[in-house]
Write a structure and sequence with these properties.
It is built from 14 helices and no strands. With 278 residues, it is an all-alpha fold. Helix 4 (64-77) runs antiparallel to helix 5.
Length: 278
């Protein structure tokens, strides 16, 4: 009898203790665990726990705190796939403030990768209730991805009048002076190296002008001296022609690289805007 009573008390005690112990798979426990991981810098582990929380429990997808924390992780890690997953699955149902942040995160990372098609796919799903600034960021970004600098400059001027955050980009856009690859090529046809001088490289001009000039002079000098019966003028002449053609093509590419650099710097200004408004 005593053994039976003792066993009964033991079983009830275990049941009581088990009832007092929180279930580690309860939503609150998973979220608390994920929060602790996030705060201590274990972001990859925290991401896994937050996703488990969102996928496993009903109505967890409405937890804007968790959604925004995940967005912060993806934003900091420049994880475009994660940002797209959040935007595609939670932006439409989230409050506009959170939805807009998810949209900015995904579209900003797509713009950072200069992926025009992906950017357009994301922005096609933009909500009508986003702020005017965010909605104007779409045509601005598309114009830059299309390398339409005149339109981008016009949009930046419009944005900077209302939103000071765009002022540095607008000022830089106004200062851009693009170079014509065709003009650079034409200049070098008449004067070797001048196309590179036109694009801002005096060193390139001096190097190409002297190189072509020296080989041309060598061809003429040895040709006259040998009455064009020696091999040297033809070797010098061939070298001069090769360097001349190389300079003409190089001048054309130099103008393209100059324009690409201006475009890249302007895009980096817009990258900073995406970073600041997230």
């Amino acid at each position: 009898m005593k053994k039976f009573l003792s066993l009964t008390i033991f079983i009830f005690s275990l049941g009581f203790l088990n009832a007092q112990t929180p279930d580690p798979y309860e939503p609150e426990m998973i979220k608390a665990f994920a929060d602790d991981l996030f705060q201590n810098g274990f972001w990859e582990e925290a991401e896994s726990e937050y996703k488990r929380y969102l996928f496993t429990y009903d109505n967890a997808g409405t937890d804007t705190e968790v959604i925004f924390t995940l967005a912060t992780i993806y934003h900091t890690k420049k994880n475009l796939d994660g940002a797209l997953w959040l935007n595609n699955n939670f932006a439409s149902a989230a409050p506009v403030e959170i939805s807009e942040k998810l949209f900015i995160n995904a579209s900003g990372l797509a713009f950072l990768q200069r992926d025009k098609e992906l950017f357009k796919n994301i922005t096609d799903k933009a909500r009508d209730d986003y702020s005017p600034m965010v909605k104007l960021m779409i045509p601005l970004s598309v114009s830059l991805l299309d390398k339409n600098l005149p339109l981008a400059t016009e949009l930046l001027n419009t944005l900077s009048m209302e939103f000071k955050i765009f002022l540095p980009a607008a000022n830089y856009a106004k200062s851009i002076k693009t170079k014509s690859p065709g003009l650079a090529l034409t200049l070098s046809l008449f004067l070797p190296g001048s196309g590179k001088w036109y694009t801002g490289s005096f060193t390139g001009f001096a190097t190409d002008f002297l190189t072509v000039g020296v080989f041309t002079a060598g061809a003429i000098y040895t040709g006259i001296k040998s009455e064009w019966k020696d091999w040297r003028p033809y070797v010098f002449g061939t070298c001069a022609l090769v360097f001349y053609i190389s300079d003409v093509y190089g001048s054309y590419k130099s103008a393209q690289r100059y324009n690409e650099t201006q475009y890249r710097i302007l895009c980096e200004y817009v990258d900073r805007v995406y970073e600041e408004i997230f």
